[in-house]
Write a structure and sequence with these properties.
The complex is a heterodimer of chains A (331) and B (270). Chain A has 331 residues and is an alpha/beta fold. Helix content of chain A is 34%, strand content 25%. Chain A contains 13 helices and 18 strands. Chain B folds into two domains: 197 residues, 3-Layer(aba) Sandwich (Rossmann fold); 68 residues, no CATH class. Chain B contains eight helices and ten strands. Chain B has a five-stranded mixed β-barrel with strand order 5-9-8-6-10. In chain B, strand 2 and strand 3 form a beta hairpin. Chain B starts with a strand and ends in a 6-residue tail after the last helix. The chains are: A alpha/beta (331), B alpha/beta (270). At the A-B interface, strand 2, helix 3 and helix 9 of A face strand 8, helix 4 and helix 6 of B. The complex binds iron/sulfur cluster (SF4). The site of iron/sulfur cluster (SF4) has 9 residues of chain A, from strand 7.
């Protein structure tokens, strides 16, 4: 339940802002000049705010579509991301958002139409090859859909733009918005997973692995392309058997032709983010693991990282062809 | 909890309920304490509020724990009835551009309202806005050393369009605060519970303290030692073993090495 809605003065009369105000009539409405006045001040505690984040309605005025590092992607050559929302309903302990953002408030940029203009322009610029747009970089693409209506707005747009691909990355089982419409060949619903035991320890508030698998299978059966994201790969006891079981559960009964791609990603993040996360959760086992600082980034010791990624890769290749398997590196 | 209150008549119900005792050591402000709380009576106005908050920040006796700060007092309001308590969710100032937005984590029954801190008593009651004379200065100082979620402002409306501030009596002020005292104290207690959640673990601090005394560790070694002890606590390793291991080592360097090797075996998620 949202108790406080901050809004930038310039969006007060925007239809989407008005909808929010009427949907949460009891919430206190507080105006600000710019969302950063509320979101950016130093001396906020992400861990505490995560208990009860407020909503900030804002307009993204600058660049809305950003290029993605070349080693990140699932087959396309022109890859971009956009962030209509900062922060997430869930609370994964490995999530870099808690190291990157000063606040856990949700910032929703409600000028979707302008996001779409920028996406379309970008797609037109590179019209000789399909361009990929990744949402869910600074949030979960579906978890807050019933509040944001983001997917509901964007799907009809992408349906008319077949050379632009959209990846919705999620851990949510809130897939009604997709089930309610015809599948689109240029939209991939990518679910992220860690083994159940890890999920229970680290992915707070996230639906169970089995519920997510079920949601993914349902969408695949309905004809949606799905993606599987094993990202980040987390070192743990009984690593092989846990990941083997996860992969079995994921691919068992999944219609092969609905699987768009599988990607693997190492646990890796900028040192500054890590330091902040470690300070927020000094008791967290994950941060006391065999991690190492290399230049400006923190990751598992190279030997562990290589071994774990190799092991996942060979297990995955028992189920899928190598063309569908990608290793993503953010840095 | 640190209470910052402008007037004695506002402070009285809190002092009585929490059985705070007046501190007689020479201090520039009236300070009242018990084992868990302190309260400062600041006097009216921004300068007094800023100075008293700064004084309280410096005089905390529980330095290892994360502190909480609550400004309690009366305020005028453009919409709310008198004797209504509210939490300030935005705090502006009539002479300063900076606006504070205290993050609201606790679900309380209080109303939420914007608040403007004025240099002089306010006679124009703008709709939806509260008016006081201290909150902004208080927040600006407290937020320099404490996390913002744990600095809050609760005001009880004493005057509005229909009831001018000129007629407010100290007894009425005390009565207003008294009326909301249970909610104010419950709110303070919840803030303290949040603070506890992010305060350093006292047992870990104690263990680090003991370990540091076992060898002449350098500053950077102390940093490593503290971190290793932190990790050992994450993995529930036995305190006795750690201390033995450090004791048996022949030098600070060896102690760090041994500790690291010992903890390394556990560094994996279960
Ligand atoms: S679901 Fe994704 S965005 Fe949300 S907390 Fe977890 S890792 Fe972060």
């Amino acid at each position: 339940m949202i108790k406080n809605i901050y809004f930038e003065e310039k969006v007060e009369n925007h239809n989407r802002a008005q909808e929010f105000f009427s949907r949460f009539p009891k919430a206190a409405k507080i105006s600000c000049n710019h969302f950063k006045e509320v979101f950016n001040p130093s001396g906020q505690n992400f861990r505490l705010q995560k208990k009860n984040p407020s909503l900030i309605l804002a307009s993204q005025d600058g660049k809305k579509v950003h290029p993605i590092p070349s080693k990140y992607g699932v087959g396309g050559t022109s890859n971009f991301y956009f962030s209509h929302l900062f922060n997430c309903l869930y609370d994964c302990r490995y999530c870099f958002l808690q190291g990157m953002f000063p606040s856990a408030h949700y910032v929703l940029f409600i000028n979707y139409e302008e996001f779409w203009d920028d996406i379309r322009n970008k797609a037109d610029e590179v019209s000789n090859s399909p361009s990929w747009f990744f949402s869910g970089y600074d949030c979960d693409s579906l978890a807050l859909e019933s509040t944001t209506g983001f997917v509901d707005f964007f799907l009809p747009k992408f349906s008319k733009f077949p050379h632009a691909f959209l990846e919705l990355r999620t851990k949510s089982v809130n897939t009604r918005v997709l089930k309610n419409r015809e599948p689109l060949p240029n939209v991939i619903v990518a679910f992220s997973f860690t083994p159940e035991e890890i999920s229970r320890q680290l992915e707070h508030g996230v639906p169970s692995v089995s519920a997510r698998i079920k949601a993914m299978h349902q969408l695949a059966t309905l004809g949606w392309y799905v993606g599987i994201r094993i990202d980040p790969v987390i070192d743990c006891q009984e690593f092989e058997s846990r990941y083997a079981l996860l992969f079995h559960q994921l691919f068992d009964k999944l219609p092969q032709d609905s699987l768009h791609s599988v990607s693997l990603g190492a646990f890796r993040m900028p040192y500054g983010f890590f330091k902040k996360m470690d300070k927020l959760y000094p008791e967290e086992n994950l941060f006391a693991g065999k991690l190492t600082k290399n230049k400006n980034s923190v990751s598992y010791e190279l030997e562990i990282e290589t071994k774990r990624l190799d092991s996942c890769r060979s297990m995955l290749l028992e189920y899928i062809s190598s063309e569908k398997l990608f290793t993503c590196e953010m840095s | 909890m640190n209470f910052i209150v402008a007037l004695s008549c506002e402070a009285k119900p809190i002092i009585n309920e929490l059985r705070l005792t007046k501190q007689f050591s020479p201090t520039p402000f009236e300070v009242f304490r018990n084992d868990f709380h302190q309260l400062v009576v600041t006097g009216i106005g921004k300068v007094a509020a800023a100075a008293a908050t700064g004084f309280l920040l410096g005089s905390s006796t529980r330095k290892q724990e994360v502190q909480t700060y609550l400004n309690v007092g009366i305020a005028g309001h453009g919409t709310l009835q008198t004797n209504t308590a509210f939490i300030a969710n935005s705090i502006s100032d009539d002479q300063d551009k900076a606006i504070f937005y205290p993050p609201q984590i606790i679900d309380s029954d209080f109303e939420l309202s914007r608040l403007c801190t004025c240099s002089h008593p306010n006679q124009k009651y703008e709709k939806g806005l509260g008016f006081d004379m201290e909150a902004h200065a208080f927040y600006s100082i407290a937020s320099r050393s404490c996390t913002r979620e744990l600095i809050q402002v609760v005001k009880v409306v004493s005057d509005n369009e229909g009831q001018s501030f000129e007629y407010i009596r100290p007894t009425t002020v005390t009565e207003y605060i008294c009326n909301h005292l249970p909610s104010i104290l419950a709110f303070a207690q919840e803030l303290d519970a949040l603070a506890k959640e992010i305060s350093p673990d006292l047992e870990t601090l104690g263990l680090q303290e003991r370990a540091r005394k076992l060898h002449p560790f350098s500053q950077s070694q102390i940093f490593q030692l503290d971190r290793l002890i932190n990790h050992s606590r994450s993995f529930d390793l036995e305190e006795k073993h750690l201390i033995e291991l450090i004791e048996k080592s022949n030098s600070p360097k060896e102690a760090i090495y041994n500790l690291n090797t010992f903890i390394d075996q556990s560094r994996i998620l279960s």
